[in-house]
Amino acid sequence: MRSVCLSLLLVSACWALPFQQTGFLDFMMEDESSGDAPTPPVIPKDPSVFFPKPQEPSIAPFEPVRPEGPVCPFRCQCHLRVVQCSDLGLKNVPEAIPADSTLLDLQNNKITEIRENDFKTLKGLHTLILVNNKITIIHAKAFMPLGKLQRLYLSKNVLKDIPANMPKTLQELRIHENNITKIKKATFQGMVNVIVMELGSNPLTTTGVDAGAFSDLKKVSYIRISDTAITDIPKGLPSSLSELHLDGNKITKVQAESLKGLKNLAKLGLSYNDISVVENGSLANVPHLRELHLDNNALTVIPPGLPEHKYIQVIYLHSNKIAAIGTEDFCPPSYNTKKAMYSGISLFSNPVPYWEVQPITFRCVFDRSAIQLGNYRK
Ligand SMILES: *[C@@H]1O[C@H](CO)[C@@H](O)[C@H](O)[C@H]1NC(C)=O
Ligand SMILES: *[C@@H]1O[C@H](CO)[C@@H](O)[C@H](O)[C@H]1NC(C)=O
């Protein structure tokens, strides 16, 4: 009897437990959804339902209705005083360029002419990029308002002359690939701040650069006049010059006079000319030269003055007509007079039989691998 009762009790308890639990869980769930307890985050399958994309009209009205707001030429982009108008097929310098602009990029357009007032308001401009247009004429007063201009890029146009009245603040002028035939003495008058000058790939004639044309450029460090038809190294170059690139011209002779006073010159490029003579004393005039390129010329002997030169380290002489190399051509008789060893000498493609060159010729060369002797081809 007691055991039946007990078993009945257990049975009812056993049956009762699941039901009670179900009820308890139901209550909990009800409680959660009622808002008292913190709700776990709901992740919707499509977030745009909860975060709809802002509608265009909600921000658009702000710009056009602000009358004193920043202006920007149609189709250009203006941001942080930089005005970007490249590759737009423009035929003129656009109007309404913000007056406080510092950089104006007009490259790759179809501008044919720079008019008197094109840059009239741009008194704070630092950089003007006009590369790859069709400019033939620049008004003589066009650049006068640009009182802070430092960089002027005019390459790849059809200019016949270097522009007049460039700002005296200019530090960098790039005007290669134009149709300039002449650089007159007065062209760069007073341009005391120029550091970089790139004038290559212009049809500069035989006497295309007047003596002293660069003499006002007291701070100039880099001049490049490559791929023109000049037959001489320009005279009266400033002593500040550290790199002079004159490759691809028709220079026939290195005159000592042309290099006089270039005490800072470190690199001299004269590859691809018609040089058959390097005058005695030329190298002595450039005592700090480190690199000299004379490859692809018409030299028949090693240039004089190399053994006495203290700093020259790299000399290209390949593709010339050098038929003999002596043991005293590169190095001084005694070791210690040369302050820097050679790190590169190229002599291949010369008629000298390389097996006739004595190894002792290169006694002041840093490493054997620094010498490119090779075979004379053709
Ligand atoms: C360059 O100038 C010459 C005259 O000096 C002219 O005949 C030639 O057409 C010009 N080149 C271009 C591309 O305008
Ligand atoms: C070049 O100068 C050296 C001395 O530095 C001299 O011995 C030589 O004769 C000169 N050569 C010419 C062609 O003047």
Automatic annotation (TrEMBL):
SUPFAM superfamilies referenced in this protein's UniProt entry, alphabetically: L domain-like
UniProt record similarity statement: Belongs to the small leucine-rich proteoglycan (SLRP) family. SLRP class I subfamily.
Name of the protein in question: Decorin
Gene name, Swiss-Prot/TrEMBL: DCN
Top-rank lineage group of the source organism: Eukaryota
Record InterPro entries: Leu-rich_rpt, Leu-rich_rpt_typical-subtyp, LRR_dom_sf, LRRNT, SLRP, SLRP_I_decor/aspor/byglycan
PANTHER family tied to this protein: AGAP008170-PA, DECORIN
Cellular component GO terms held in the UniProt record: extracellular space
Primary location: secreted
Domain LRRNT residues, every copy: 71-103
Signal peptide: 1-16
The keyword Membrane appears for this protein: no
Subunit structure: Binds to type I and type II collagen, fibronectin and TGF-beta. Forms a ternary complex with MFAP2 and ELN.
Keyword set, alphabetical order: Disulfide bond, Extracellular matrix, Glycoprotein, Leucine-rich repeat, Proteoglycan, Repeat, Secreted, Signal
Function per UniProt: May affect the rate of fibrils formation.
The species this protein was found in: Denticeps clupeoides (denticle herring)
A Pfam cross-reference name: LRRNT
Subcellular location: Secreted, Extracellular space, Extracellular matrix
Cystine pairings recorded for this chain: C72-C78, C76-C85, C331-C364
